[in-house]
Amino acid sequence: MPEGNETPAEEGQPEFAPRNSWRPDWILLLVLLAGAYLILTNLGETRLWTDEAEAACLGQSILEHGVPTAFDGRNYMTQWVVAKREDFNDELVWVLSPWLQLYVSAGSFALLGVNTLAARLPFALVGIACLWMIFALAKRATGDKRIARTASLLLLTSIPFLLHSRQGRYYPIAMFATMWILHAYIGMLERKKWSTVHIVVAVSVLFHANYGLCVPLLGALVLHALFYAWGRARLWQVFAVPAGIGLLTLPWAFYAEIHRTASRFDLTPYFYNFFTYVHQVNRWALPLVLVVAFAILRPLGWKSRVLRMSNVGVTAAALIGIVAVAFLSTNVGLFARYIINVIPLFVFLNACFVVWIVDAVRARAGVSISRVAWGLIPLMMFTTVLPVPFAPVLRVAAMNAPHKGFQDNPAVRNPLSDFEGIEHEVFDLIGELHRPYDGPLERIAKFLDVNAEPEHTLFIDYGDVPLLFYTDLIVRGGLQGIPYHGKPEWIVSRSNRAGIAVNALREFADAEGYVPIVMMDTPDTRWENRPDPYVHFYEMPPVGQVARLTDGVYPPVVLYMRSDLELVDALGATVVKTGGRR
Amino acid sequence: MRSRVFFALCLLPLACSDSSATSAPPRNLLVVTMDSVRADRFEAPELFNELPLALAHLQAEAQQFRGISSSPATLPAVASLFTGRHSRELGYPAPDRRLPEEIATLAELFSAKGYDTAAFVSSRALDTKNGIERGFATFSGPDGARTEDYEVTQAAREWLSTESRADKPWFLWVHLNAGHGPYSALETAFNPLNFFYKAMVPAGRSLERKLEKSDSNSGAGALPSYQRIAGPPLFGRYRSFYDARVRVGDWFANELRHSLKYTEQYDRTVFAVIGTHGEALGEHGIEFDHGHNLFDEVLRVPFILRVPGRAAAQSDRLASHVDFAPTLGALFGLELSSPSGTDLFSSGDDVDAPVISELYSPIGAESVVSIRSNDWSLIRTAGLPSSVFDLPNDVTQSNPLSGPEVPATTNLQGQLDQLDSLIIPELRRMELNSTTRGELRALGYILNRFPE
User: Fold this and answer.
1) A400, A429, A458: which is the final residue of a domain?
2) Does B195 touch chain A (CB under 8 A)?
3) Are the beta carbons of B2 and A103 separated by less than 8 Å?
4) Do A483 and B187 touch (CB under 8 A)?
5) Are A91 and B20 inside 8 Å of each other by CB?
6) How close, in Å, is residue A484 to chain B by CA atoms?
7) Chain B contact set for A73 (CB, 8 A)
8) Which of B254, B261, B309, B255 is nearest to B17 (CA)?
9) A with B: how many residue pairs have Cβ under 8 Å apart?
10) A199, part of any domain
11) Does B198 contact A at CB distance below 8 Å?
């Protein structure tokens, strides 16, 4: 049990009592080791999926041009269908998202070469650092090492945290920066030396990771400061912090014209998004049953030493978390990544609830019985029992809320009903770490590597960006929004891609006499290594298995080869004889 | 230290972004001609698609004129563009006739000045037997009835990326089929831009209107056979196909612009995007075709000219294809002999000067001539009385004025009469060989009603 040497501070102790200086904590060390195992093992096995590949391609372009460049003379790195032609500017420089992650990728490629592992490794290391950061944050916020240990343990098996930490994208940076900001904010109110510099740099890091996440966080922090900073912060800090942040963020913001690119807000699906995010928080960060229990039991005398309005860290974490979920529900998109940076904050609050229960039980039933209460930690680390009571409520609330076309996508709607069991996905993840993972992207890339020439064009209706990274071909299609006509050497029609005229593409291939190449050993899953827990594939299902996200079954991957080409090696795929060009 | 590095990174793109502001004299020329593209798709693109044009950035930094095609047929239009001469001066309508040797083309003039010259064209109407290839050191024509714009763009992009481009000035011409049919499944059903297509309903017409199918390649009153593709022949459907094609052309033209930027040649290159002619989408009884008349739907074309160092402007000046070569002549110091057009940047010329367009059937029948100013349009069809249109009050050109209503000051008829003197005496109806006839029929330039 993570009971430390320290005894919890007594009630009435000064809020900002000096903390013990940091020294190695054996539970934290174990957490870091376990985190390294869960985050680093087989990190390069699965292929980069679209969003990761975007960062990787742009990172590569930095090595060549010094700035992220969306055009390499042949191919475009763009998702214009989504970005409505605002993702790169007229100088061909990428401006849709901040560049920090891209320079991190570029640095990693420069050191380790351009490959999948290098694309992910620096972010994964930051993910591991998050386990230390949550420990440090909880300790600073509460002065209670038990909460710090509990928080790091709970974060260790939080599936969104793990999956996002294993991605070659900004997510771990955003999580780390968010905790760093809160840590520095508490320090600022405690008048810690350098805390002002810390908060300026941390906010700027979050901004350059994803400025969209920065907005609700800063809003919540300002709101919090209005009530908590009086008499604690110094006057010069009130001016220095915004000035410093402005200095480090506004040049890029003006350059990128973010007012043009950040315009995807829509209130129609607001409550659908909101309840879905709360569903995710309930399942993977903070079971709402604990919050409700606290609300009921606190008036009955089950008081907490840290879960109180006077605690700066707890109230700020709660406010940031709530504002983030409430604000980001206005975005028309619905992705776990939009709230990923506040997941650790909810986990921190979860740890406070656990320790509250332990302390309350100890006060009423004695130390030995309270040890049983520590069982909540493994219960939450390895099962999802506690989220179960609220999952159906949130699902019904979400499914009955107004929504738009995006939310009609089964991949968005179904997850709510898929995650009401008690099996914890960390075991699925451990399984994934020790299995070969031959997803559709890997299969397609290998096949094209053997059979296609660099001057060939591949038209693919979804999954274009990873193939930009993994092949030398001219790649068109996907969400590029680049019109294409002509007869490309290769066509890939991803069968499960919703919303795209799949049949039209296949009919075209058929009418033009393309040769179908069927890969019976590889299912055409819509996604594979996506970090959203509800669409992540921990292993590839067999072809023909009933699909999780659609009404049909997983069909095989099918490539179409222009009839004037010859295969070098079918690599085990079935080449369908069509009788040549019609 | 960390902050300083970070700040420097933030400022880096600001430094990079200024690269287009240089004002070195223009050295190169890239001309993109786009087939069958109406001006309205470029002048008011928001009416047809939520997405801005890919070329919107070019428009914002270029001179845009009110383009008027010299002829609603590809070859004469392009020939006028590159010679500064009217169709009748060049001997059209004879498709078998090569450009007169005595009239120099832009490519020949540039070549004589030591430029690298290349052309990548996607229309059979522009093949080597017409003389349009004269002066181009590299001329890549279509393989079959036409080559896809994608392939043409790719080839041009590769040519632009060749290292030797930096050593020598160059003139590159790229012809895109753009709005010219026939349409195909991949570019229409699977064009992501269709997500943002706006099905604007033209006044008095229904998108559900069923198009009659013609057995010939004529779009007169029916959908030409060369335009037909599988599926219901609904007006709205075909119009969305047309718009998809225009956006395809828009994209590829911009892709070339991106290549110029990528190869750091943009700031020293004059970049022109010009439509060859428009396309009738049901107006005046013509369905998805051109080459039947000289109304605005087939004459008004995008005419965009970006000259480094010259301020962007939206001009009301009518720009004919014949004005293009003299304009470039002035920019690059070329010696054109007696062009019919004028330098569009010269301030001395009458900005309201009317422009002339001509339509001759490839086999010499049904010649139509028009003269158009910003306010008036006079169209004279052989054997018929002239029609005059008051354009500000009759945008659709559906109410021809009778004689007394036409102000004498327009003097359009008089100017048209002068033009007649230019007709090349030896021009006669010419017989076509069967190959040429077949190729032209495939493109809709020969109608089945004319005798073989």
Assistant:
1) A429
2) yes
3) no
4) yes
5) yes
6) 6
7) 157, 161, 259, 262-263
8) B261
9) 119
10) yes
11) no
pLDDT tens per residue across all 582 residues of chain A = 444 443 444 443 333 444 555 567 999 999 999 999 999 999 999 999 999 999 999 999 999 999 999 999 889 988 776 666 678 998 999 999 999 999 999 999 999 999 999 999 999 999 999 999 999 999 999 999 999 999 999 999 999 999 999 999 999 999 999 999 999 999 999 988 899 999 999 999 999 999 999 999 999 999 999 998 877 878 888 899 999 999 999 999 999 988 876 656 778 888 988 998 999 999 999 999 999 999 999 999 888 888 888 899 999 999 999 999 999 998 877 788 999 999 999 999 999 999 999 999 999 888 888 889 999 999 999 998 999 889 888 888 888 887 766 556 655 555 565 555 678 899 999 999 999 888 999 999 999 999 999 999 998 888 899 999 999 999 988 877 777 767 889 999 886 554 445 566 787 788 889 999 999 999 988 788 999 888 889 999 999 888 766 667 888 999 999 999 999 999 989 888 765 443
CA distance B247 to chain A (A): 7
The whole-angstrom separation of Cα A391 and Cα A386 is 10
Closest residue of chain B to A477, computed from CA coordinates: B192
Residues of B (136-175) whose Cβ lies below 8 Å from A: 148-151, 154, 157, 161
Q: How far apart are CA B235 and CA B207, in angstroms?
A: 5
Are A214 and A287 within one domain?
yes
Residue A108 lies in a domain: no
Give the end of a domain, one of A396, A429, A462: A429
Q: Which of B283, B276, B345 is nearest to B65 (CA)?
A: B345
Chain B residue whose CA is closest to A479: B192
Contacts of B6 in chain A (CB under 8 A): 204, 208, 248
**A86 part of a folded domain:** no
Q: What is the CATH number of domain B24-353+432-442?
A: 3.40.720.10
**Cα–Cα distance list, A56 to A47, A96, A536, B271 (Å):** 12, 15, 20, 33
Whether residue B150 and residue A508 make contact (CB cut-off 8 A), yes or no, is no
Among A90, A92, A480, select the one facing B192 at the smallest CB separation.
A480
Contact B372, B68 (CB under 8 A): yes
CB contact under 8 A, B185 and A511: yes
Q: How far is B77 from chain A (nearest CA, A)?
A: 25
Query: Does residue A392 share a domain with residue A317?
Result: yes
Determine the structural domain holding residue A290 and report its residue range: 26-44+115-429
Chain B residues with beta carbon closer than 8 angstroms to that of A98: none
Contact B263 A73 (CB under 8 A): yes
Measured between CA atoms, how close is B20 to chain A, in angstroms?
Answer: 8
- Please count the other Cβ atoms lying within 10 Å of the Cβ belonging to residue A347: 30
To 10 degrees, the CA torsion angle through A435, A436, A440, A446? Answer: 170
CB atoms A73 and B19 under 8 Å:
no
Residues A244 and A344 in one domain: yes
- Domain identity same for A275 and A152: yes
Residue of B2, B5, B10 best to disrupt the A interface, most CBs of A under 10 A: B10
DSSP structure class, residue A88: B
Residues from chain A that touch B261, judged by Cβ atoms under 8 A, are 71, 90-92
Which chain A residues are within 8 Å of B9, Cβ to Cβ? 99, 103
The answer for residues whose C-beta is within 8 angstroms of residue A388's C-beta and 6 or more apart is: A420, A421, A422
Q: How many domains does chain A have?
A: 2
CB A349 within 8 A of CB A341: no
Whether residue A345 sits in one domain with residue A450: no
- One domain for residues A310 and A399: yes
